[in-house]
Amino acid sequence: TLRVVKCGGSSTVEEIKTQEEIGVKNPMAHPHSLDQELLEQLVYDALVWSSLRGLVVGDRSVQRSGTVPGVGMVHAPFTLLPLSFPESHYRQACELAPIFNELVDRVSLDGNFLQDSLSRTKKVDPFTSRLLEIHSKMLEIDKKEEIRLGLHRSDYMLDEQTNMLLQIELNTISSSFPGLSSLVSELHRSLLDQYRERLKLDSEKIPRNSAVSCFAEALAKAWTQYDNPRAVVLIVVQSEERNMYDQHWLCTLLKERYPFCHAYKLIYIRIQQYRKVFISKQCKSVSLEKHFFNVFRCFPQLINTHNVTVVRKTLTEIDAQGELLPDGTLIVGGKEVAIVYFRAGYSPTDYPSELEWGARLLMEQSSAIKCPSISYHLAGTKKIQQELAKPNVLERFLENEEDIAKVRRCFAGLWSLDDVEVVKDVISRPELYVMKPQREGGGNNIYGDDVRKTLQRLQSEGTEEDAAFILMQRIFPTITPTILMRDGIFYKEDAVSELGIYGAYLRNKEKVLVNDQCGYLMRTKVSSSNEGGVAAGFAVLDSIYLD
Ligand code: ADP
Ligand code: MG
Ligand code: MG
């Protein structure tokens, strides 16, 4: 279809595209108008790919699927195609990762800041209070964590009206989906390659997602710093975990050992070194490097070989099997523990009795590396996020003014509930705010009219219970059409998305050994849903297509 358009003084002829034409040309922008036959082929191939490549979770309808691997698996929920995302905002989020890593480390060292900021919350929130109790004990004995390992994920939404990338939260404990998010990027790349002719999309525009190998690498480096080849990595898990395959991907990379791969890895590192020389001499075509790159892409285990022993235990098991030697060594089930990596322990339900709290304290007292330590854990609470957003607080922890400005630019409005003016506004326009308790794992926030009701209840009760929450500006991302896959069925929905950027941080005393951005997690949820957790059943895994 052609039409004449006025452009400045001159007229040009422009093609107007019908919906169908656009649908064919840009299937990501208009996935709902994908040709039915193509859609069915994509759906089928995506399901086969995810089953064969381990993009799976435990199936809720099978009772043992949360405890026995290999029983009752279903593909993880995902979007059929990646989401178009502006490259500039993606880069901005990536740049923030090392700054947030450093910020968490600095905040974690200021025990008084953590205790003071959370002192009111402590009175009314029993869970946070227990965490603070352990933290106080560590302050009393002047416990030093010389080797500090952080595996974080900072989550953002792109606010439509202001076009600003705003932080939702920073996770310092149990940052989930490094394994499955890496796979979703691969799935989308593979579909785009396979249907290149018909989709007309370039798979190279989906950034490579190295979240799982980066996390494995950081864990392995930390394990090396601990410096006992017989010591193990202890993964603290829930007794039932339907997201176990995400964790197993990481464990597998840590554990696996392949013959010759060490030599292969060394050759690759050499080639990378030479490449710098080649480039500086304007020498093109380093085909050998390309060869290795492709080999590593097909067989990631070649470069991800760490040969570290991993054991999985619940807090209850750790209580029963754990002991602390007089020199601080942590022994669990007869094995010395180098690293305690928490994929549980972030929620009150992980501590059904005093035994589990005992296990947490025991581990904290030990000389094992904790990922996270109690102070890293507390640094990731919503209350601390809100305190850091107050004027002049970032300046206490960061020196570089540019870094401070970058961090501040991604802060949304955050307030405590003792801010009278804000509370008044919230009561009159609750839909513009989110109320958050100090909880993790999704499904805990309060939205819409419930915010007003809760605030009014708290006001009438006149207790200090308000200190359990913070208030946050509600972010409204652009609503885009998408195709979600769940239980083998596709759904055409309007959705919003949240971008998480993983960060790994490792230091030994004064030496920072790792401070990297490592891969991403895109989560997409039906636009009418408030919450965003994949494991909690609200969102699906996605990847990004940079434009
Ligand atoms: P959790 O630690 O439980 O994941 P979050 O702060 O990430 O807590 O909130 C859970 C979900 O709620 C997010 O994934 C997001 O979908 C939604 N959410 C949180 N904060 C906001 C906000 N300020 N604006 C809009 N949605 C939000
Ligand atoms: Mg969280
Ligand atoms: Mg979250």
From TrEMBL:
Q: Which metal ions or organic cofactors does this protein require, according to UniProt? A: Mg(2+)
Q: What is its EC number?
A: 6.3.2.3
Where is ATP bound in this sequence? Answer: 169, 382, 436-445, 447, 472-475, 498, 525, 531
Positions contributing to substrate binding? 153, 173-176, 241-243, 247, 343-346, 523, 534-535
| One cellular component term from this protein's GO annotations in UniProt | cytosol
UniProt entry keywords in alphabetical sequence: ATP-binding, Glutathione biosynthesis, Ligase, Magnesium, Metal-binding, Nucleotide-binding
Coiled-coil region(s):
none
The metabolic or biological pathway listed in the UniProt record of this protein is: Sulfur metabolism; glutathione biosynthesis; glutathione from L-cysteine and L-glutamate: step 2/2
- Which residues are noted in the entry as Mg(2+)-binding? E169, N171, E440
Q: Would the keyword Ligase be found if you checked this record's keyword annotation?
A: yes
Mention one GO molecular function.
glutathione synthase activity
**What sequence ranges are listed for the domain Glutathione synthase substrate-binding?**
301-379
Q: Which domain of life is it from?
A: Eukaryota
Catalytic activity reads: gamma-L-glutamyl-L-cysteine + glycine + ATP = glutathione + ADP + phosphate + H(+)
Give the cofactor binding note: Binds 1 Mg(2+) ion per subunit.
Metal-binding among the record's keywords? yes
| Pfam family, any one | GSH_synth_ATP
Family membership noted in the UniProt record: Belongs to the eukaryotic GSH synthase family.
Q: What name is this protein filed under?
A: Glutathione synthetase
